[in-house]
Amino acid sequence: MDTDPAPATAPRGAAPQPLPLAGITVVAVEQAVSAPFATRQLADLGARVIKVERPDGGDFARAYDTAAHGLASHFVWANRGKESLALDLKDPRGLEVLHELLSGADVFVQNLAQGAAARLGIDAAALCARYPRLVAVDVSGYGPGGPYAHKRAYDMLVQCEAGLVSVTGTPEVPVKAGIPAADIAAAMYAFSGVLAALLRRGTTGRGGPVEVSMLDALAEWMGHPLHHTMHGGEQPVRTGLAHAVIAPYDAYPTADGDRVLLSVQNDREWGRLARQVLGRPDLAEDPAYATNAARTRGREKTDAVVAEALGRLGADEAVRLLEAAGIACARLNSVAQLAAHPQLAARDRWRQVDSPAGPLRALLPPIGLPGGAEPRMGAVPALGEHTDALLRALGMTGAQITALRRDGVIA
């Protein structure tokens, strides 16, 4: 029977729906980007995330830089909304505290160096055997087996191993992505793996292990060039901002020093570009330009004609004319221009989160839940900020906490 779709927003006067992960407790032994960014997504959606850090400095990403008002920009980005517990897991007393937390947790995530979690008995397989309802995630560089299992797996190294660098850059120079693509890929698969495992637990009553490797995640993201190469016999060439088989498709300088990228997808669009933007209606029918195949063969001439026309215009005027002609275009923005992007401002995408350095700007998470509560963008924690409160909640006395701190087990 057909039914009407659910309304996109809550009925007038009705309370918003709660965040979907409210009531879920996550314990994370995490560092750098891949696991922290995964658990931040869980925190944004309402989960309680307890971040377990080393007492002697904590997550090493805390020291990457001091760009965010004295805090590390990576750490600020990937760790809001968490509680920090500074705990030495190599001390049996610290490990006992971790297990007390896990006995009441729903999810555990770790991305320690390969083999470290197993030596502590906190790898996903061991924990799921001990706590049947727990969803436990192992995030690694190259996976638990094979000849690369124990290789160091920093983001740039995995970008190289996964072939991303080989298809990124100019014909002369391969370059890595300007963001930690391997870390982010692994984080998002860990995040979605947790959601899938929690959904399965809802029907079976059992949690289970989740495995994600940075190489597997980024290799999946390489799907287009991978399949093109495997099934077509040749690797796509690096073309910078250009497109290997479409012209014009590139960024062109404008008179005011900016650059505007445009993409002509078919010959009808080329005709409009020639007439309405380039001021060269003759090129719409010229056999040297009229078809994409011809424009691609003569890419240098095509680009020169477009560059000459856009070089006479300011960026605002170029975008206005291109959009009026129905040509896809974009500004080649800097990061500062992204931070001031009018679309983000118009859609009210910015919020402030608290931190040890004071309020910081942060973007709302990309997942929108119309009719529900806004994502919980909690504070960025100081190292060990919640240690005492968490231990008291486990039943420890002040004297016990003082003794653990004196012995360096907590901070």
In brief, what are we looking at here?
The chain is 37% helix and 13% strand. By secondary structure, it is an alpha/beta fold.
Question: What attributes characterize this protein structure?
Answer:
411 residues; alpha/beta; three-stranded antiparallel sheet; disordered N terminus
Descriptive overview:
With 411 residues, the chain is an alpha/beta fold. 37% of the residues lie in helices and 13% in strands. The protein has a six-stranded parallel beta sheet with strand order 3-2-1-4-5-6, sandwiched between helices. It has a three-stranded antiparallel beta sheet with strand order 7-8-9, covered by helices on one side. Strands 10-11 form a two-stranded antiparallel ribbon. Helix 1 (34-44) crosses helix 7 (181-204).
Secondary-structure element pattern, one letter each = EHEHEHEHHEHHEHHEEHHHHEHHEEHH
**Beta-strand fraction estimate:** 5-15%
Helicity range: 25-40%
Main sheet strand line-up? 3-2-1-4-5-6
Largest sheet: 6 strands, parallel
Secondary-structure map:
Layout: E1 25-29, H1 34-44, E2 48-53, H2 73-78, E3 82-86, H3 92-102, E4 107-110, H4 116-120, H5 124-130, E5 135-140, H6 155-161, H7 181-204, E6 208-213, H8 214-221, H9 223-232, E7 249-253, E8 259-263, H10 267-276, H11 292-297, H12 299-310, H13 315-324, E9 328-331, H14 335-339, H15 342-346, E10 350-353, E11 360-363, H16 387-393, H17 398-406
Parallel strand pairs: 1-2, 1-4, 2-3, 4-5, 5-6
Antiparallel strand pairs: 7-8, 8-9, 10-11
